[in-house]
């Protein structure tokens, strides 16, 4: 397949590229495009054959549901009922990195929802994404624009690495400014439940409903029998080529343990990557060290996480050791992604 790649530097001057991409969506094709969370791989959510192309391009399991992206807060054509709490979330956080799970209408094909009677919907906070949806005249089903299981792309270069020759069009814009996928909240139950943490935090959502909670299963190894209600609940995700191990616990002990493990790996002629922070990067004695940013700025850490995992692929490391982060605010999303990237391989100190 011949993939066209276009980069939008000015939304008004380069709008023709969005028109081209929208025509591909209309005709049943597949387009990678930027959002504020990560880059997405989109197709007409109501076209069964088009949606199947997403799964083929990504190598994505068919039982992993997709998220539908819209450009308007009125989603009544797609879902059967919208609880008051869901409406409040839309008013407060749309457009933005929040996906709301609702009961779907039959207009949404089974392949889009992975056979579920529910569907996740969000309105992205990205001008290119919103214009693409508007011009296509279609709700767009879109997981992240990467090969399934790999770290999600936050810029066009990583999309091209993974999907060139596998999709019809790659539409580039600025680097994603959130850096982890959207928060997913199940509003088909009361109280609502967070099925995937993201940039909209538990604390923020509890301003809407103080009973909202996080599904405890999302931070543990998923069951083989799990039927995922939201993307990323069942399968290993966000994984670089190298094996990832997280060291959790007291920060000083974490640094000591990582230094100890690094030496053991070096003695075995293994190339080691270390995920560090601005506060700790000078304390490691060997290895390829990349700082995610300051521990005082967890949103910056989240923004840099996936690109850092991919950067270690560029460095051809054999193993990656990562510090852990405080599980509050967006730190919950960071640790959720790290644990999945590591396949829940964790050393406690």
Automatic annotation (TrEMBL):
<comment type="similarity">
    <text>Belongs to the SUA5 family.</text>
</comment>
<dbReference type="InterPro" id="IPR017945">
    <property type="entry name" value="DHBP_synth_RibB-like_a/b_dom"/>
</dbReference>
<protein>
    <recommendedName>
        <fullName>Threonylcarbamoyl-AMP synthase</fullName>
        <ecNumber>2.7.7.87</ecNumber>
    </recommendedName>
</protein>
<dbReference type="Pfam" id="PF03481">
    <property type="entry name" value="Sua5_C"/>
</dbReference>
<comment type="function">
    <text>Required for the formation of a threonylcarbamoyl group on adenosine at position 37 (t(6)A37) in tRNAs that read codons beginning with adenine.</text>
</comment>
<dbReference type="InterPro" id="IPR010923">
    <property type="entry name" value="T(6)A37_SUA5"/>
</dbReference>
<feature type="binding site">
    <location>
        <position position="118"/>
    </location>
    <ligand>
        <name>ATP</name>
    </ligand>
</feature>
<dbReference type="InterPro" id="IPR005145">
    <property type="entry name" value="Sua5_C"/>
</dbReference>
<feature type="binding site">
    <location>
        <position position="152"/>
    </location>
    <ligand>
        <name>ATP</name>
    </ligand>
</feature>
<dbReference type="GO" id="GO:0000049">
    <property type="term" value="F:tRNA binding"/>
</dbReference>
<dbReference type="GO" id="GO:0008033">
    <property type="term" value="P:tRNA processing"/>
</dbReference>
<feature type="binding site">
    <location>
        <position position="37"/>
    </location>
    <ligand>
        <name>L-threonine</name>
    </ligand>
</feature>
<dbReference type="Pfam" id="PF01300">
    <property type="entry name" value="Sua5_yciO_yrdC"/>
</dbReference>
<dbReference type="GO" id="GO:0005737">
    <property type="term" value="C:cytoplasm"/>
</dbReference>
<feature type="binding site">
    <location>
        <position position="182"/>
    </location>
    <ligand>
        <name>L-threonine</name>
    </ligand>
</feature>
<dbReference type="GO" id="GO:0061710">
    <property type="term" value="F:L-threonylcarbamoyladenylate synthase"/>
</dbReference>
<keyword id="KW-0963">Cytoplasm</keyword>
<dbReference type="GO" id="GO:0005524">
    <property type="term" value="F:ATP binding"/>
</dbReference>
<feature type="domain" description="YrdC-like">
    <location>
        <begin position="15"/>
        <end position="200"/>
    </location>
</feature>
<feature type="binding site">
    <location>
        <position position="238"/>
    </location>
    <ligand>
        <name>ATP</name>
    </ligand>
</feature>
<keyword id="KW-0548">Nucleotidyltransferase</keyword>
<dbReference type="InterPro" id="IPR050156">
    <property type="entry name" value="TC-AMP_synthase_SUA5"/>
</dbReference>
<dbReference type="InterPro" id="IPR006070">
    <property type="entry name" value="Sua5-like_dom"/>
</dbReference>
<dbReference type="GO" id="GO:0006450">
    <property type="term" value="P:regulation of translational fidelity"/>
</dbReference>
<feature type="binding site">
    <location>
        <position position="64"/>
    </location>
    <ligand>
        <name>ATP</name>
    </ligand>
</feature>
<keyword id="KW-0808">Transferase</keyword>
<feature type="binding site">
    <location>
        <position position="144"/>
    </location>
    <ligand>
        <name>ATP</name>
    </ligand>
</feature>
<keyword id="KW-0547">Nucleotide-binding</keyword>
<feature type="binding site">
    <location>
        <position position="69"/>
    </location>
    <ligand>
        <name>L-threonine</name>
    </ligand>
</feature>
<keyword id="KW-0819">tRNA processing</keyword>
<dbReference type="InterPro" id="IPR038385">
    <property type="entry name" value="Sua5/YwlC_C"/>
</dbReference>
<feature type="binding site">
    <location>
        <position position="60"/>
    </location>
    <ligand>
        <name>ATP</name>
    </ligand>
</feature>
<keyword id="KW-0067">ATP-binding</keyword>
<dbReference type="GO" id="GO:0003725">
    <property type="term" value="F:double-stranded RNA binding"/>
</dbReference>
<feature type="binding site">
    <location>
        <position position="142"/>
    </location>
    <ligand>
        <name>L-threonine</name>
    </ligand>
</feature>
<feature type="binding site">
    <location>
        <position position="122"/>
    </location>
    <ligand>
        <name>L-threonine</name>
    </ligand>
</feature>
<feature type="binding site">
    <location>
        <position position="196"/>
    </location>
    <ligand>
        <name>ATP</name>
    </ligand>
</feature>
């Amino acid at each position: 397949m011949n993939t066209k790649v276009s980069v939008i530097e000015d939304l008004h001057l380069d709008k023709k590229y969005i028109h081209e991409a929208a025509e591909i969506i209309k005709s049943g094709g597949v387009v990678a495009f930027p959002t504020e969370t990560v880059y997405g791989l989109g197709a007409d959510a109501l076209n069964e054959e088009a949606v199947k192309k997403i799964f083929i391009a990504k190598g994505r399991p068919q039982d992993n549901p997709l998220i539908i992206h819209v450009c308007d807060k009125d989603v009544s054509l797609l879902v059967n009922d919208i609880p008051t709490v869901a409406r409040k979330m839309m008013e407060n956080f749309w457009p933005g990195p929040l996906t709301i799970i609702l009961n779907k209408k039959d207009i949404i094909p089974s392949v889009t929802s992975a056979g579920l009677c529910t569907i996740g919907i969000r309105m992205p906070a990205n001008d290119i994404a919103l214009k693409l949806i508007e011009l296509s005249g279609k709700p767009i089903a879109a997981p992240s624009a990467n090969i399934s299981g790999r770290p999600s792309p936050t810029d066009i270069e990583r999309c091209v690495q993974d999907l060139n020759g596998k999709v019809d069009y790659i539409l580039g814009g600025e680097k994603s400014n959130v850096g982890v996928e959207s928060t997913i909240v199940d509003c088909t139950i009361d109280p609502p439940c967070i099925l995937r943490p993201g940039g909209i935090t538990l604390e923020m959502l509890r301003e809407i409903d103080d009973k909202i909670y996080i599904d405890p299963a999302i931070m543990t190894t998923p069951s083989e029998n799990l039927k995922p209600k939201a993307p990323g609940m069942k399968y290993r995700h966000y994984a670089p080529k190298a094996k990832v191990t997280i060291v959790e616990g007291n920060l000083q002990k974490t640094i000591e343990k990582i230094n100890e493990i690094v030496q053991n790996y070096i003695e075995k002629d293994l190339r080691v990557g270390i995920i560090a922070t601005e506060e700790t990067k000078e304390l490691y004695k060997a290895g390829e060290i990349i700082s995610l940013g300051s521990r005082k700025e967890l949103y910056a850490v989240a923004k840099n996480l996936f690109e850092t995992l991919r950067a270690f692929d560029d460095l051809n490391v054999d193993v990656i050791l990562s510090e852990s982060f405080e599980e509050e605010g967006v730190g919950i999303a960071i640790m959720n992604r790290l644990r999945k990237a590591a396949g829940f391989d964790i050393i406690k100190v």
